[in-house]
Amino acid sequence: MPSSGSPTVRRRRAGRILRDLREKSGKGADDAAAALEVTSSTIYRMELGRVGIKPRDVQALVEVYGVQDAELVDELVRLARDGRKRGWWARYSDTISPPYATYVGLEQDASSLNVYDGLIINGLLQTREYARHTFSMVPERSLRYMDQRIDLRMERQQRLRGDLKIWNVIDEAAIRRVLGGPKVMIDQLQNLLELGSLPNVHLQVLPFEGGAYPGMLSSFTILGFGELDGEVDPGYRHPDVVYIEGHNGDVYEEGEDVEPFHEIFGFLRSAALDPGRSLEFIERQAHHLKSL
What we know:
It is built from twelve helices and six strands. The protein has helices at residues 7-25, 29-36, 40-47, 55-64, 70-83, 98-109, 128-134, 146-156, 172-176, 182-196, 259-271, 275-290, and strands at 110-117, 165-171, 201-206, 220-225, 241-244, 251-253. Helix 1 runs antiparallel to helix 5 (70-83) and helix 10 (182-196) packs antiparallel against helix 12 (275-290).
């Protein structure tokens, strides 16, 4: 599904502007909380984009902060209104965690993804049957929403046929690990070959022979963003975000904490087979499974 202005990014943008305005005015979170009759923790959550902001709350806050710029206020109201809309993924909200819902919202507005996967094929590149067999590794309670979560993965994949650029470094282990039996894995590898032929999809296999390397203990995704339309701060780009999915919860890194991941990803790319040789490697593995 093509990106059409994710409410997640709009909500985060509005929160960032309001935080900057509050700090510039010298007001504390308690002052803002008093104006809205909420707790200071709610103000921080608004500024982090974790909760939506009502347009009327924007009006109250800019008054407290002494903002006189009418265009800025109008833009904030628009961002707040857009940030309260429900994205298409909201219909899956009962089946996924709030942090993961945030990731999906960010992904919908991202212009590029730099991804490293060490154990299994990334969800954006999975076939439905392969995706089903990934649930053999999850706790029993997670099986309750398996079908809905797989449907969500399939919907997310629609952006691969559009404007999303993805560069995926895949450990050789994920290519060789057979999930669901040879037939399922052959179809999955054929899917990688098809997607790898798209101009916006670049796949690189990181071979075993490379030994140890930075980042090998955890898969991660670096989300990059294009310019956000608006009258205020033309050319604004949402800062890059790193998403790390873990067994004990999802982790987001932002700001200066993102740069080490760019460095690690650059190393992974240089250590991996180039895209052409990677597709050849994947094709050889598919042929090997067909011969069994």
